[in-house]
Write a structure and sequence with these properties.
Length: 316
């Protein structure tokens, strides 16, 4: 009978073609494909790790995380920025795949990040659609910029590409709406979010795809996750300006646009914004505070499965 060895944390550095693994002081590599991942899982089972730590790498980690989670392992997908900050804090400046895998072990042991919930097939599909939508918009913006400075002989070619991209954007929007409409959980949350003045179709879809934690975290946690929680900048008697940093840029961008609208059309956010201005707050500072308040309200609405109310702040 094979003896089982207990290992607390495993680190995996993921690249396009390879998985660099660090376990209990041992390092090895597997191919980042089904064969390599299954071989890795077979080696991992007798070790019974308590936690596997993987950096988010733009989707390259998706296959190994999915298969590990389906096999019952606790997997934490962590923000690369947090890992680099941790590396600097312990004076580790070298960067190779092997070093990164070992660093993830140390990060996991010190920080003990929570395991990441495996997204459903519908959640993965919505994320893929929203990612592709962003890519098409970026390409469309590039072609518009090209058109401004293009030689007249090239303008027809650019316009054809732009028309194709615009048509693709229409099709993607249709697929996104169709997926949300045919997924009960998405539909319920979408209806709740869009009941709030300031939240439109695109904002709701991005919140559903890029912030699945909405409604499952507390106010401080959700604000920190998005990157709208103020951080102190004090030293001795000096009291520096509070700043926001980190978080999820895509969510923060769409929340900013929604809050701009809400300061005009949402009575709660409108009142709060002008109250802050009357107190002498800078417009930018007031707007960030409104972003945080709006996010906290939306989080409470989804948590309680209740649409917008005249005085929704009581939910938060």
């Amino acid at each position: 009978m094979e003896q089982q060895i207990s290992v607390s944390v495993v680190g995996i550095d993921v690249s396009k073609n390879r998985l660099d693994v660090s376990i209990a002081g041992q390092d090895w590599a597997e191919s980042n494909d089904i064969i390599g991942i299954e071989a890795f899982i077979d080696k991992l089972k007798p070790l019974a790790p308590g936690l596997i730590v993987v950096e988010a790498t733009g989707g390259l980690e998706r296959a190994v995380v999915s298969l590990l989670s389906l096999d019952g392992f606790r997997v934490a997908v962590v923000n690369p920025r947090r890992v680099r900050e941790f590396a600097r804090s312990i004076g580790l400046l070298a960067k190779t795949d092997k070093v990164d895998a070992r660093l993830l072990v140390r990060f996991g042991e010190a920080i003990q990040p929570e395991p990441t919930r495996l997204p459903s097939e519908e959640e993965q599909q919505l994320t893929a659609l929203m990612t592709r939508r962003r890519q098409v918009i970026e390409m469309l913006t590039m072609e518009k910029n090209h058109l401004c400075s293009a030689h007249p002989s090239m303008q027809t070619s650019i316009q054809k590409i732009m028309q194709a991209l615009q048509q693709e954007l229409v099709e993607l929007n249709h697929q996104i709406d169709d997926l949300i409409g045919h997924t009960p959980d998405f539909q319920e949350k979408n209806d709740i979010l869009r009941s709030a003045p300031g939240v439109g179709q695109v904002t709701a879809a991005i919140l559903l795809s890029d912030l699945p934690e909405l409604g499952a975290l507390g106010r401080k946690e959700i604000a920190g996750l998005v990157g709208v929680a103020p951080y102190n900048n004090d030293s001795g008697r000096h009291r520096g300006k509070r700043r926001i940093k980190g978080g999820r840029p895509c969510v923060r961008t769409v929340l900013y646009m929604a809050t701009l609208s809400a300061t005009k059309y949402n009575p709660i956010i409108h009142s709060f914004y002008h109250h802050l201005l009357a107190m002498g707050k800078e417009k930018k500072v007031a707007l960030v505070a409104c972003m945080r308040k709006f996010l906290v309200i939306l989080n409470a609405m989804v948590r309680d499965r209740r649409p917008w109310q005249p005085f929704p702040s009581v939910l938060a």
